[in-house]
Design a protein that fits this description.
405 residues, alpha/beta, Rossmann fold, Dna Ligase, domain 1, D-amino Acid Aminotransferase, Chain A, domain 1, eight-stranded mixed beta sheet, 36% helix, globular
Length: 405
């Protein structure tokens, strides 16, 4: 029989609490930044683990770590309700940290709102960000540039499409698979990539999309806390480096910047969605026609959001206040503040230096000026100490899993 709650043996039993805190769904570095933001302000924080990445559970500000039980949305929502009832977490604020858990909360919003305070909008609003087919349809309606995108029923149809290479094959719904996209440089590769992807994902959920030239230096984000489509707090950032370099799953070096075109396009998108909560709208500048093309919309905390606190916009805390109907002052981030995740940025940068795409001088300049580390914090060092062993463990387990298949 499955127990309702499981926690590490080194965690003391926590009695039911009455001070309204926050439950962070996800324990990677995105969750870690939320834990620190709220914990430093004296807000009780619990972390729900739902993967191999456990960084947030090692924070001194995480009062308790539990496992998010259930495979389906229904099971996970039921677990959250049991959790809230057992520990009387009335009014506690939920922070999903992935698209999948944000979708789960949105789909069960009415039910979860009976116990928790929610930072996630309704499914009607969130699904436009969750499904890239709807994202690009919205962009077309708004006249916002986006990459040329095609669909196909099978590999043969994909091969016959009149595309200009290179292209990528990617899921319309993120996090269905570990890979973000698969590159193809000719018709044969396109057919092969589509066939391989279709073996894992329903072909109707696959998109074929032009690959816009350039790496992270051409990628920008407008991120905001919105109230029914109106940004209350916002930031524009350039995602200078990412991993992988061409179409990265995660940023490794980011800096706040002033890009009026990105901000204007981002504001148009969130206004049309009438979005409420935290959102990141990703763009990539296409030098071929000097346009900023919409790539993705992330309807939850994003990977580098801890940068924003250093730049004067503490998004998790502001989102908690907004969800609790408390006053939130309008604010924008300071330009020129940098964010670095050394464990992924260093190997990525060394690879780029060896390929002649980055100089050692340029890399060293990343450490100048005001900077926020993704993992290390003087007042909370343990996650940084645990990161390397954790990453090694994840790699070993994944390699072992592949051998077993």
């Amino acid at each position: 029989m499955t127990t309702l709650l499981r926690s590490p043996p080194d965690r003391a039993r926590v009695e039911p609490v009455t001070t309204a805190g926050a439950v962070i769904i996800g324990s990677d570095y995105r969750g870690l930044a939320v834990v620190r933001s709220l914990g430093r302000r004296g807000i009780p924080v619990w972390v729900l683990r739902n993967g191999d990445d456990t960084l947030a559970t090692h924070s001194r500000y995480a009062k308790r770590s539990l496992i998010l039980e259930g495979e389906s949305d229904e099971q996970q929502a039921a677990f959250l309700m049991r959790l809230g009832l057992r520990y009387r977490l009335d009014g506690w604020t939920l922070f999903p940290t992935s698209n999948m858990t944000a979708a789960m909360v949105a789909r069960h919003r009415d039910r979860l709102a009976e116990k928790f305070t929610l930072t996630t909008p309704s499914w009607e609003k969130l699904r436009v960000a969750y499904d890239k087919r709807l994202t690009y349809s919205l962009a077309a309606d708004l006249g916002v540039a986006h990459p040329r995108t095609w669909t196909a029923r099978d590999a043969t149809e994909a091969r016959a499409l009149p595309v200009a290479f290179p292209v990528i094959v990617k899921p319309a719904v993120s996090q269905l698979v570990a890979a973000k996209a698969w590159r193809a440089d000719n018709c044969d590769e396109l057919a092969a990539r589509f066939r391989d992807a279709a073996a894992r994902i329903d072909p109707s959920l696959l998109l074929i999309q032009e690959l816009i030239p350039g790496g992270g230096e051409a990628q920008f984000s407008f991120a905001a806390l919105c109230d029914n489509g109106t940004p209350i707090a916002s930031v524009v950032a350039r995602r200078v480096r990412q991993y992988p370099a061409d179409f990265g799953r995660a940023s490794t070096f980011v800096e706040t910047t002033n890009e009026p075109r990105i901000e204007a396009a981002g504001r148009r998108v969130v206004a049309a969605m009438q979005f409420s909560g935290l959102v990141e709208v990703e763009f990539k500048h296409d030098a071929r026609d000097d346009t900023d093309k919409l790539l993705d919309i992330n309807p939850r905390v994003w990977g580098w959001h801890s940068l924003c606190g250093r730049a004067g916009v503490d998004f998790p805390y502001l989102a908690l206040r907004l969800a609790r109907s408390q006053p939130v002052e309008r604010t924008t981030a300071v330009n020129g503040v940098r964010w670095l995740r050394l464990s992924t940025d260093l190997p990525m940068s060394l690879s780029e230096i060896l390929r002649g795409k980055l100089s050692a001088r340029e890399y060293l300049s990343s450490f100048r000026g005001p900077r926020e580390s993704a993992i290390f914090a003087r007042d909370d060092p343990w996650p940084a100490i645990c990161e390397l062993p954790m990453l090694i463990g994840i790699v070993v387990r994944r390699l072992a899993h592949r051998r077993d298949i």
